[in-house]
Amino acid sequence: MICEESSGAHKCSVCDQFFHAICGSRGEDSEDLGLKVTRNLCVRKNRIKIEQEGAKSGQEQQDKKKICPSNSRLPAVDIGTNVVVRVTDLDRGRLAPRNVLAVVADVNSSGLYLSGTKKGLLQWMNACNEFSTADNNFIEAHDVPSSSLSLRSASMITSGRKKEFVSGTASIKSGNVARKI
What we know:
alpha+beta; single chain; two-stranded antiparallel ribbon; 2 helices
C-alpha cells in the first residue's frame, strides 16, 4: 500500500512524511519517553543501507587479507621498474602471449601497483604476487600514455594482432575438389 493520501495523524520520524497507521511501525524513543513512529519503507531503506555498508566493509577487509601476505613475503617494487604481468587464460586470446611486459607507473596506499605498457595504462591494479620483475628495462615510466587498456587488449597488441578473431572463409583446393575451412 502506498500512502498517497493520509489523515495526517501519523508522521514518520525519519522522513517527516505523513502516512497511514497500517504503513508504519512503532518503536520506543528514550528521549521524550513517547513513541517513535516510522514508515515501513524507511525501516526497509535503513536495513538495506546497513547491509550495504556491512558488505562494503567486508570486501575491504578481504582486500586487506589478500594484500598483506603478498606485501610481507615479496619485496616492494619501485616506480619505473619493468615487470612481467601474467595474463590469465580467461584474459588471453588463443594466439596471444602468456605475459605482458609493463612498467610500474604508480603505487597506492594499500600496496597495489598501477602498471602500463607502451600503448597505455592497464585498467586493473596488481598486487606484488601477480607480477614478477623483469631483468632489463625495456620501457620507461614516462613512455606510458595516459589512455586506459585492458590486460586482454595489451596481450593482443603485443602479439601484433588487431582483432581477436579473423572473419571470413578460406578455401583449399585438393585435387579437383574445393572445400571451405
